[in-house]
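Onboarding guide, step 5: your first structure request.
Type a short instruction followed by the sequence, for example:

Predict the 3D structure of this protein.
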Amino acid sequence: METYLNHTESKNGGDAKKGELARKKILWAARQIFSRQPYHAASLRMIAKEGGFDHPLIRYYFPTKADLFKAVVAEVVGEFTE
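The system replies with structure tokens like these:
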């Protein structure tokens, strides 16, 4: 039983790391597109193409384009205030 729990914990930890990596990749790609395109012209498909992943992945982490934009702005402001 203990072996199963340890295996599950390490597996979930790996999933969390993969999830964080995917989120960072999305944010990076979004920053690139939002820096070149106005908000209304930028699309999730453009962001996905920039990042080299399928656009439905964005919706998994950010349900709307506005949510993604807010996360990008929060990241930029956080870097600025450091």
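Each response can be followed by summary notes, for example: The helical segments are 2-36, 44-51, 56-61, 65-81.
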